[in-house]
Design a protein that fits this description.
mainly alpha, 68% helix
Length: 170
């Protein structure tokens, strides 16, 4: 398969990759960088892809592995400190729905990485349990149990109304 054929297969999957990356990292620019790295890796290793399988789980596995590698790299470096957080724009007072969404995303970030990834792959990207198992490299039974634990924990966090940790600005 030529590079243009690979591009024609990859292009329709970009919106799903961007959506998943945005949910993983929480920042549009970082998500775009992650998707670009994923597509670059996929194109450079296109010949390694199993042609008998669907491309979508393969791409999500690459995306997730790049994300996990970045998390590990940042953990080794230590926390990043913003030089000037005081100029962050504030939300208008009529944004209650946005605040609820922010609370849900913050609760999702409190989940362990394996549960968060599964909730996003199955719940947002609509991958089957089998496809999610291939992305994560685990048995389907593990997907089922992690997904159940992740859903239960997310529901508990949202029902308790756990406050979102706000950054203090000095």
């Amino acid at each position: 398969m030529s590079r243009s054929d690979a591009e024609s297969v990859l292009e329709p999957l970009i919106p799903a990759l961007r959506r998943h990356a945005r949910a993983l990292v929480g920042d549009a620019d970082a998500a775009d960088d992650l998707v670009q790295d994923c597509l670059e890796r996929a194109l450079s290793r296109w010949w390694l892809r199993r042609t008998s399988e669907d491309t979508k789980p393969w791409l999500f596995a690459i995306l997730r592995n790049l994300h996990v590698d970045d998390l590990r790299r940042r953990r080794r470096r230590g926390p990043a400190i913003e030089l000037d957080e005081s100029n962050a724009p504030s939300a208008p007072g009529d944004q209650e729905h946005g605040l609820g969404l922010r609370d849900a995303l913050a609760a999702l970030d409190l989940l362990p990485e394996d549960q968060k990834s599964l909730l996003l792959l199955v719940g947002v990207e609509d991958l089957s349990y089998e496809e999610a198992a291939r992305v994560l490299g685990v048995p389907v039974g593990t997907v089922t149990s992690r997904l159940a634990r992740g859903r239960r924990r997310l529901r508990d966090l949202l029902e308790r109304g756990r406050p979102v940790a706000l950054r203090s600005v000095k």
